[in-house]
Protein backbone atom coordinates (compact mmCIF):
# COMPACT_ATOMS: atom_id res chain seq x y z
CA UNK A 1 0.00 0.00 0.00
CA UNK A 2 1.18 3.52 -0.81
CA UNK A 3 2.07 5.82 2.01
CA UNK A 4 2.92 9.25 0.53
CA UNK A 5 3.91 10.81 3.82
CA UNK A 6 6.12 8.18 5.31
CA UNK A 7 7.76 6.08 2.62
CA UNK A 8 10.96 5.00 4.33
CA UNK A 9 10.55 1.27 4.98
CA UNK A 10 12.75 1.63 8.05
CA UNK A 11 10.16 3.96 9.54
CA UNK A 12 7.04 2.55 7.88
CA UNK A 13 5.44 0.50 10.61
CA UNK A 14 6.36 -3.11 9.87
CA UNK A 15 4.97 -6.20 11.40
CA UNK A 16 7.49 -8.33 13.28
CA UNK A 17 7.71 -10.87 10.45
CA UNK A 18 8.09 -8.08 7.83
CA UNK A 19 10.92 -6.57 9.83
CA UNK A 20 12.72 -9.87 10.18
CA UNK A 21 12.24 -10.59 6.45
CA UNK A 22 13.75 -7.17 5.70
CA UNK A 23 16.70 -7.88 7.99
CA UNK A 24 17.19 -11.27 6.32
CA UNK A 25 17.20 -9.63 2.89
CA UNK A 26 19.80 -7.08 4.05
CA UNK A 27 21.81 -9.97 5.46
CA UNK A 28 21.71 -11.81 2.12
CA UNK A 29 22.86 -8.71 0.26
CA UNK A 30 25.70 -8.21 2.74
CA UNK A 31 26.77 -11.88 2.51
CA UNK A 32 26.80 -11.65 -1.28
CA UNK A 33 28.77 -8.39 -0.97
CA UNK A 34 26.11 -6.55 -2.95
CA UNK A 35 26.99 -3.40 -1.05
CA UNK A 36 25.30 -0.93 -3.38
CA UNK A 37 22.08 -2.95 -3.44
CA UNK A 38 22.15 -3.16 0.37
CA UNK A 39 22.72 0.56 0.60
CA UNK A 40 19.86 1.37 -1.79
CA UNK A 41 17.46 -1.21 -0.39
CA UNK A 42 15.47 1.23 1.79
CA UNK A 43 15.07 3.85 -0.96
CA UNK A 44 14.23 1.29 -3.67
CA UNK A 45 11.61 -0.36 -1.43
CA UNK A 46 10.18 3.05 -0.58
CA UNK A 47 9.94 3.99 -4.25
CA UNK A 48 8.48 0.62 -5.12
CA UNK A 49 5.83 1.26 -2.49
CA UNK A 50 5.18 4.82 -3.67
CA UNK A 51 5.05 3.93 -7.39
CA UNK A 52 3.33 0.59 -6.99
CA UNK A 53 6.17 -1.31 -8.74
CA UNK A 54 5.82 -5.01 -9.47
CA UNK A 55 8.23 -7.43 -7.81
CA UNK A 56 10.12 -7.76 -11.10
CA UNK A 57 10.45 -3.97 -11.43
CA UNK A 58 11.62 -3.64 -7.86
CA UNK A 59 14.26 -6.34 -8.26
CA UNK A 60 15.41 -4.77 -11.52
CA UNK A 61 15.82 -1.36 -9.87
CA UNK A 62 17.66 -2.81 -6.92
CA UNK A 63 20.09 -4.87 -9.01
CA UNK A 64 20.59 -1.98 -11.47
CA UNK A 65 22.12 0.01 -8.57
CA UNK A 66 24.56 -2.84 -7.96
CA UNK A 67 25.43 -3.14 -11.67
CA UNK A 68 26.04 0.65 -11.87
CA UNK A 69 28.35 0.50 -8.86
CA UNK A 70 30.24 -2.49 -10.31
CA UNK A 71 30.65 -0.77 -13.69
CA UNK A 72 31.90 2.42 -12.01
CA UNK A 73 34.40 0.39 -9.95
CA UNK A 74 35.66 -1.47 -13.03
CA UNK A 75 36.02 1.77 -15.00
CA UNK A 76 37.97 3.37 -12.15
CA UNK A 77 40.23 0.28 -12.12
CA UNK A 78 40.78 0.41 -15.88
CA UNK A 79 41.61 4.13 -15.72
CA UNK A 80 44.02 3.56 -12.81
CA UNK A 81 45.75 0.78 -14.73
CA UNK A 82 45.88 2.88 -17.93
CA UNK A 83 48.25 5.38 -16.21
CA UNK A 84 47.20 8.24 -18.48
CA UNK A 85 49.56 11.14 -17.73
CA UNK A 86 47.04 13.98 -18.20
CA UNK A 87 43.28 14.53 -17.92
CA UNK A 88 43.09 15.33 -21.68
CA UNK A 89 39.94 14.19 -23.47
CA UNK A 90 38.89 14.11 -27.13
CA UNK A 91 36.07 16.49 -26.23
CA UNK A 92 38.51 19.22 -25.26
CA UNK A 93 40.64 18.85 -28.37
CA UNK A 94 40.32 22.04 -30.43
CA UNK A 95 40.09 21.03 -34.10
CA UNK A 96 40.30 24.67 -35.27
CA UNK A 97 43.78 24.79 -33.77
CA UNK A 98 44.82 21.61 -35.60
CA UNK A 99 43.84 22.11 -39.24
CA UNK A 100 45.63 18.93 -40.34
CA UNK A 101 43.46 16.74 -38.12
CA UNK A 102 40.22 15.48 -39.65
CA UNK A 103 37.48 15.58 -36.99
CA UNK A 104 35.60 12.81 -38.83
CA UNK A 105 38.59 10.50 -38.50
CA UNK A 106 39.00 11.26 -34.79
CA UNK A 107 35.27 10.71 -34.24
CA UNK A 108 35.58 7.35 -35.98
CA UNK A 109 38.56 6.45 -33.78
CA UNK A 110 36.57 7.57 -30.74
CA UNK A 111 34.09 4.74 -31.41
CA UNK A 112 37.00 2.32 -30.69
CA UNK A 113 36.04 0.13 -33.67
CA UNK A 114 39.69 0.15 -34.80
CA UNK A 115 40.52 -1.86 -31.67
CA UNK A 116 38.38 -4.74 -32.91
CA UNK A 117 40.57 -5.07 -36.03
CA UNK A 118 43.88 -4.45 -34.23
CA UNK A 119 44.51 -1.31 -36.28
CA UNK A 120 47.42 0.86 -35.16
CA UNK A 121 47.39 4.65 -34.98
CA UNK A 122 50.51 6.67 -35.70
CA UNK A 123 50.57 10.30 -34.67
CA UNK A 124 53.47 12.10 -36.31
CA UNK A 125 54.39 15.74 -35.82
CA UNK A 126 56.67 18.27 -34.16
CA UNK A 127 56.47 19.03 -30.41
CA UNK A 128 53.40 20.78 -29.04
CA UNK A 129 50.86 19.99 -31.78
CA UNK A 130 48.62 17.74 -29.67
CA UNK A 131 49.97 14.22 -30.31
CA UNK A 132 49.98 13.23 -26.63
CA UNK A 133 46.63 14.97 -26.12
CA UNK A 134 45.01 12.86 -28.86
CA UNK A 135 46.72 9.67 -27.67
CA UNK A 136 45.53 10.23 -24.09
CA UNK A 137 42.03 11.15 -25.30
CA UNK A 138 41.83 7.96 -27.38
CA UNK A 139 43.18 5.97 -24.43
CA UNK A 140 40.51 7.40 -22.15
CA UNK A 141 37.80 6.62 -24.73
CA UNK A 142 39.08 3.04 -24.95
CA UNK A 143 39.13 2.58 -21.16
CA UNK A 144 35.62 4.05 -20.94
CA UNK A 145 34.42 1.65 -23.62
CA UNK A 146 35.70 -1.26 -21.52
CA UNK A 147 39.06 -1.95 -23.22
CA UNK A 148 42.17 -2.63 -21.20
CA UNK A 149 44.47 0.26 -22.02
CA UNK A 150 48.02 1.10 -20.99
CA UNK A 151 50.04 4.26 -21.55
CA UNK A 152 53.81 4.37 -21.56
CA UNK A 153 56.58 6.31 -23.24
CA UNK A 154 59.15 4.75 -25.57
CA UNK A 155 61.89 5.68 -23.07
CA UNK A 156 60.00 4.15 -20.14
CA UNK A 157 59.24 0.98 -22.09
CA UNK A 158 62.92 0.68 -22.98
CA UNK A 159 64.01 1.24 -19.37
CA UNK A 160 61.52 -1.34 -18.05
CA UNK A 161 62.67 -3.93 -20.60
CA UNK A 162 66.30 -3.21 -19.72
CA UNK A 163 65.63 -3.76 -16.00
CA UNK A 164 63.59 -6.87 -16.81
CA UNK A 165 66.48 -8.33 -18.80
CA UNK A 166 68.89 -7.75 -15.91
CA UNK A 167 66.50 -9.15 -13.31
CA UNK A 168 65.48 -12.20 -15.36
CA UNK A 169 61.89 -11.01 -15.88
CA UNK A 170 62.01 -10.60 -19.65
CA UNK A 171 59.21 -13.06 -20.48
CA UNK A 172 56.89 -11.62 -17.81
CA UNK A 173 57.52 -8.09 -19.04
CA UNK A 174 56.86 -9.06 -22.65
CA UNK A 175 53.60 -10.71 -21.53
CA UNK A 176 52.69 -7.52 -19.68
CA UNK A 177 53.12 -5.39 -22.83
CA UNK A 178 51.18 -7.95 -24.89
CA UNK A 179 48.23 -7.83 -22.47
CA UNK A 180 46.35 -4.55 -22.97
CA UNK A 181 43.96 -4.29 -25.93
CA UNK A 182 45.40 -0.82 -26.51
CA UNK A 183 49.03 0.04 -25.81
CA UNK A 184 50.00 3.69 -26.16
CA UNK A 185 53.69 4.35 -26.74
CA UNK A 186 54.38 8.07 -26.50
CA UNK A 187 57.39 10.05 -27.69
CA UNK A 188 59.32 7.73 -29.93
CA UNK A 189 62.31 9.61 -31.28
CA UNK A 190 62.85 12.20 -28.55
CA UNK A 191 65.68 10.10 -27.19
CA UNK A 192 67.82 7.77 -29.28
CA UNK A 193 67.17 4.17 -28.30
CA UNK A 194 70.21 1.96 -27.76
CA UNK A 195 70.24 -1.34 -29.70
CA UNK A 196 68.79 -3.40 -26.86
CA UNK A 197 65.91 -0.92 -26.41
CA UNK A 198 65.15 -0.97 -30.13
CA UNK A 199 64.91 -4.75 -30.11
CA UNK A 200 62.66 -4.67 -27.01
CA UNK A 201 60.36 -2.26 -28.79
CA UNK A 202 60.48 -4.43 -31.90
CA UNK A 203 59.48 -7.48 -29.87
CA UNK A 204 56.58 -5.61 -28.25
CA UNK A 205 55.35 -4.47 -31.68
CA UNK A 206 55.80 -7.96 -33.19
CA UNK A 207 53.94 -9.85 -30.53
CA UNK A 208 50.96 -7.47 -30.78
CA UNK A 209 50.97 -7.54 -34.59
CA UNK A 210 47.48 -8.35 -36.00
CA UNK A 211 46.23 -9.09 -32.48
CA UNK A 212 46.02 -5.80 -30.56
CA UNK A 213 46.40 -2.10 -31.32
CA UNK A 214 49.21 0.34 -30.65
CA UNK A 215 48.95 4.12 -30.67
CA UNK A 216 52.40 5.52 -31.22
CA UNK A 217 53.38 9.17 -31.17
CA UNK A 218 56.61 10.45 -32.68
CA UNK A 219 58.25 13.69 -33.68
CA UNK A 220 60.25 11.90 -36.39
CA UNK A 221 59.02 11.08 -39.87
CA UNK A 222 59.16 7.38 -40.67
CA UNK A 223 62.12 8.03 -42.99
CA UNK A 224 64.34 8.78 -39.99
CA UNK A 225 63.31 5.80 -37.86
CA UNK A 226 66.47 3.96 -38.86
CA UNK A 227 68.40 6.70 -37.11
CA UNK A 228 66.09 6.68 -34.06
CA UNK A 229 66.39 2.91 -33.67
CA UNK A 230 70.05 2.81 -34.63
CA UNK A 231 69.35 0.04 -37.15
CA UNK A 232 67.61 0.40 -40.51
CA UNK A 233 66.67 -3.31 -40.72
CA UNK A 234 64.93 -3.31 -37.33
CA UNK A 235 63.28 0.02 -38.20
CA UNK A 236 62.00 -1.33 -41.53
CA UNK A 237 60.68 -4.54 -39.96
CA UNK A 238 58.97 -2.61 -37.19
CA UNK A 239 57.42 -0.08 -39.57
CA UNK A 240 56.20 -2.94 -41.72
CA UNK A 241 54.21 -4.38 -38.83
CA UNK A 242 53.04 -1.04 -37.46
CA UNK A 243 51.90 0.33 -40.80
CA UNK A 244 50.38 -2.82 -42.29
CA UNK A 245 47.00 -2.04 -40.74
CA UNK A 246 47.15 1.52 -39.57
CA UNK A 247 45.83 5.02 -39.53
CA UNK A 248 48.55 7.65 -39.87
CA UNK A 249 47.90 11.20 -38.75
CA UNK A 250 50.37 13.87 -39.68
CA UNK A 251 50.02 16.79 -37.34
CA UNK A 252 52.03 19.76 -38.26
CA UNK A 253 51.62 23.41 -37.77
CA UNK A 254 52.10 25.71 -34.88
CA UNK A 255 52.83 24.32 -31.46
CA UNK A 256 49.67 24.74 -29.37
CA UNK A 257 51.89 25.59 -26.41
CA UNK A 258 53.47 28.40 -28.41
CA UNK A 259 50.27 29.74 -29.98
CA UNK A 260 49.63 32.24 -27.20
CA UNK A 261 53.23 33.22 -27.29
CA UNK A 262 53.13 33.74 -31.09
CA UNK A 263 49.88 35.70 -30.87
CA UNK A 264 51.44 38.00 -28.28
CA UNK A 265 54.56 38.43 -30.40
CA UNK A 266 52.44 39.24 -33.46
CA UNK A 267 50.50 41.83 -31.49
CA UNK A 268 53.75 43.35 -30.27
CA UNK A 269 55.16 43.43 -33.77
CA UNK A 270 52.04 45.11 -35.10
CA UNK A 271 52.17 47.76 -32.40
CA UNK A 272 55.86 48.34 -33.02
CA UNK A 273 55.66 48.57 -36.81
CA UNK A 274 52.10 49.76 -37.24
CA UNK A 275 51.48 46.94 -39.72
CA UNK A 276 48.95 44.16 -39.49
CA UNK A 277 49.57 40.67 -40.65
CA UNK A 278 46.62 38.96 -42.31
CA UNK A 279 44.87 36.53 -40.00
CA UNK A 280 45.95 32.95 -40.63
P1 LIG B 1 52.77 16.94 -28.34
O1 LIG B 1 52.54 15.62 -27.68
O2 LIG B 1 52.45 16.94 -29.80
O3 LIG B 1 54.13 17.50 -28.07
P2 LIG B 1 50.74 17.84 -26.50
O4 LIG B 1 49.63 16.91 -26.83
O5 LIG B 1 51.51 17.55 -25.25
O6 LIG B 1 51.75 17.99 -27.73
O7 LIG B 1 50.17 19.32 -26.48
C1 LIG B 1 50.77 20.36 -25.72
C2 LIG B 1 49.71 21.09 -24.91
O8 LIG B 1 48.81 21.76 -25.77
C3 LIG B 1 48.86 20.13 -24.09
O9 LIG B 1 48.49 20.79 -22.90
C4 LIG B 1 47.63 19.90 -24.96
O10 LIG B 1 46.49 19.60 -24.18
C5 LIG B 1 47.50 21.21 -25.68
N1 LIG B 1 46.99 21.06 -27.03
C6 LIG B 1 47.73 20.80 -28.15
N2 LIG B 1 46.94 20.80 -29.24
C7 LIG B 1 45.68 21.04 -28.81
C8 LIG B 1 44.41 21.16 -29.46
N3 LIG B 1 44.28 21.05 -30.80
N4 LIG B 1 43.33 21.44 -28.69
C9 LIG B 1 43.45 21.57 -27.35
N5 LIG B 1 44.63 21.48 -26.68
C10 LIG B 1 45.73 21.21 -27.39
MG1 LIG C 1 53.86 14.62 -26.49
Q: Biggest sheet: strands side by side, in what order? A: 2-3-4-1-5
Low-confidence stretches: 1-7, 275-280
Order of helices and strands: HHHHHEHEHHEHEHHEH
Annotated CATH architecture of the largest domain: 3-Layer(aba) Sandwich
What fold name goes in the CATH topology slot of the largest domain?
Rossmann fold
Nearest-integer average pLDDT: 89
Structural class: alpha/beta
Number of DSSP strand runs:
5
Overall, the morphology is: elongated
If you compute it from the alpha carbons, what radius of gyration comes out, rounded to the nearest whole angstrom? 27 Å
The name of the CATH superfamily of the largest domain reads P-loop containing nucleotide triphosphate hydrolases
Please outline the major beta sheet. 5 strands, parallel
Query: Percent of residues in helical segments?
Result: 55-70%
Cofactors, ions and other ligands in the entry: adenosine-5'-diphosphate, magnesium ion
- Beta-strand content bin: 5-15%
**DSSP helix count?**
12
Task: Summarize the entry for a quick read.
With 280 residues, this protein is of the alpha/beta class.
List key phrases describing it.
280 residues, alpha/beta, Rossmann fold, 2 domains, five-stranded parallel β-sheet, 12 helices, elongated, disordered N terminus, binds adenosine-5'-diphosphate, binds magnesium ion
Describe this structure in words.
It contains 12 helices and 5 strands. By secondary structure, the chain is of the alpha/beta class. The N terminus and C terminus are likely disordered. A 5-stranded parallel β-sheet has the order 2-3-4-1-5. The chain folds into 2 domains: 55 residues, no CATH class; 175 residues, P-loop containing nucleotide triphosphate hydrolases (Rossmann fold, 3-Layer(aba) Sandwich).
Amino acid sequence: MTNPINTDPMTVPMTGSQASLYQQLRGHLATLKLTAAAEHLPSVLAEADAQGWSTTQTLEHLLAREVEATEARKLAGRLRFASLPTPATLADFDFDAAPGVDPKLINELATCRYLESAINVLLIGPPGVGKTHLAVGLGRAAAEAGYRTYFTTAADLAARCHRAAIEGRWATTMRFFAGPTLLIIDELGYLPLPGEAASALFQVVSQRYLKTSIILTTNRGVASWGEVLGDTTVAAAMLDRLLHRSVVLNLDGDSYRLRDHHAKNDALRQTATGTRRPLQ
